[in-house]
């Protein structure tokens, strides 16, 4: 189906656009009262994500209510470990928790390479329903976690400030670590290809825990696998967002992806210099800027837009929108991007 608004895809490919497209990481499941209403009708996050009609409904809410130029499918990066045989729970107000972890060869033997169409059928169904309901209004973004970030949760068993058990594994068991990372990578490639077949117009890889590795380990245990994914996915444009990986920007310019996401600690002009002119950059307003008053938000957004001006850009925050941000302030950010000349 022909898209009515394909700004995101054209900006990703480096084509001319009338204005800069804008969307927000974590736009679907956090800030909207309309989301919370749907969320309260089910037992929790997992039931919502596994009910395709409802997942499609909350995916489209930000398009209707906020006016963003893309939808992102409502799911989580942790559906991959589950599809590989490691189930998770979402503990209210605390986040993900895995009853079992993966720390030995015998744990590894219990895992399988996920098949996107079968093991993650509920996401694939949700994408198809979302595409139907969107009816070509805006592109739909599919996503997955980067292998290193997924590895960190599978070894640790939950979120963590330091992910010291996962990082311990890289030092003590590098061979085991590479085996697990390869298994996650193969699953992720299957999953992203299935998302694109189902209708995802662009895919984003979230390396949320990139910044806790040093530069050398980041090359060996993360970028190597992101490279495999980018090389394998040729069916749609790819965005790589590696939070905190300021040290890897030059290396990332060699990835076969169209767009690189910047967090708000990364200088815009410096990033453009390090990455070069051949990638689109996405980001990177400080999510906390949306706690400001409307004038402050407009000014911060214009300052950001001026620094990107003239080069390939998709406007976004530098990380996911915080759950207690007022949706009216998000609308001011979006409108300011749309009005920017
Ligand atoms: O918010 C959206 O737009 C909906 C889709 C979405 C996405 C893109 C969800 C739903 N999760 C994600 C990605 C995600 N999940 C990332 C990568 C992006 C980022 O860095 O923010 C990460 C690291 C996760 C893992 C995760 N899931 C956490 C973080 C825990 C930690 O270690 O700090 C948490 C709290 C979740 C739960 C979750 N995921 C999504 C929702 C709506 C929720 C809340 C669950 C609920 O409603 O109870």
TrEMBL record:
Keywords: Cytoplasm, Decarboxylase, Lyase, Porphyrin biosynthesis. One of its GO terms (biological process) is protoporphyrinogen IX biosynthetic process. Homodimer. It catalyses: uroporphyrinogen III + 4 H(+) = coproporphyrinogen III + 4 CO2. The record marks 76 as: Transition state stabilizer. Substrate binds at residues 26-30, 76, 153, 208, 319. The lineage of its organism: Bacteria, Pseudomonadati, Bacteroidota, Cytophagia, Cytophagales. It holds the Pfam family URO-D. It is found in: Cytoplasm. InterPro entries: UROD/MetE-like_sf, Uroporphyrinogen_deCO2ase_HemE, Uroporphyrinogen_deCOase. Residues 21-30, 141-157 form the Uroporphyrinogen decarboxylase (URO-D) domain. Belongs to the uroporphyrinogen decarboxylase family. Catalyzes the decarboxylation of four acetate groups of uroporphyrinogen-III to yield coproporphyrinogen-III. It is an enzyme of class 4 (lyase). GO terms for cellular component: cytosol. It comes from Algoriphagus lacus. This is Uroporphyrinogen decarboxylase. HAMAP family: URO_D. Pathway: Porphyrin-containing compound metabolism; protoporphyrin-IX biosynthesis; coproporphyrinogen-III from 5-aminolevulinate: step 4/4. Its EC number is 4.1.1.37. One of its GO terms (molecular function) is uroporphyrinogen decarboxylase activity. The keyword Cytoplasm applies.
């Amino acid at each position: 189906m022909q898209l009515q608004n394909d700004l995101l895809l054209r900006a990703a490919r480096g084509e001319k656009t009338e204005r800069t497209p804008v969307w927000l990481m974590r736009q679907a499941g956090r800030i909207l009262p309309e989301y919370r209403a749907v969320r309260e009708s089910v037992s929790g996050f997992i039931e919502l994500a596994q009910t395709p009609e409802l997942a499609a409904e909350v995916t489209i809410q930000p398009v209707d209510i906020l006016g963003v130029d893309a939808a992102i499918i409502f799911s989580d990066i942790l559906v991959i470990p589950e599809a590989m045989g490691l189930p998770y729970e979402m503990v209210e107000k605390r986040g993900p928790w895995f009853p079992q972890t993966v720390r030995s060869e015998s744990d590894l033997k219990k895992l399988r390479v996920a098949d996107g169409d079968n093991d993650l059928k509920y996401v694939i169904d949700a994408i198809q329903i979302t595409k139907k309901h969107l009816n070509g209004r805006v592109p739909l973004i599919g996503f997955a976690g980067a292998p290193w970030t997924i590895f960190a949760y599978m070894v640790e068993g939950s979120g963590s400030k330091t992910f010291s058990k996962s990082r311990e594994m890289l030092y003590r068991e590098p061979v085991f670590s590479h085996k697990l990372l390869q298994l996650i990578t193969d699953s992720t490639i299957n999953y992203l290809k299935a998302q694109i077949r189902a209708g995802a117009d662009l895919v984003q890889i979230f390396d949320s825990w990139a910044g806790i590795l040093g530069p050398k380990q980041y090359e060996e245990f993360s970028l190597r696998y992101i490279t495999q994914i980018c090389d394998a996915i040729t069916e749609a444009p790819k965005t790589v967002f590696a939070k905190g990986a300021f040290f890897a920007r030059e290396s990332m310019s060699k990835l076969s992806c169209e767009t690189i996401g910047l967090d708000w600690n990364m200088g815009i002009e410096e990033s453009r210099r390090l990455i070069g002119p051949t990638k689109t950059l996405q980001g990177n307003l400080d999510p906390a800027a949306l706690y400001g008053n409307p004038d402050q938000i407009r000014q911060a957004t214009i300052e950001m837009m001026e620094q990107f001006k003239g080069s390939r850009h998709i406007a976004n925050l530098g990380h996911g929108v915080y759950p207690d941000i007022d949706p009216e302030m998000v609308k001011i950010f979006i409108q300011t991007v749309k009005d920017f000349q």
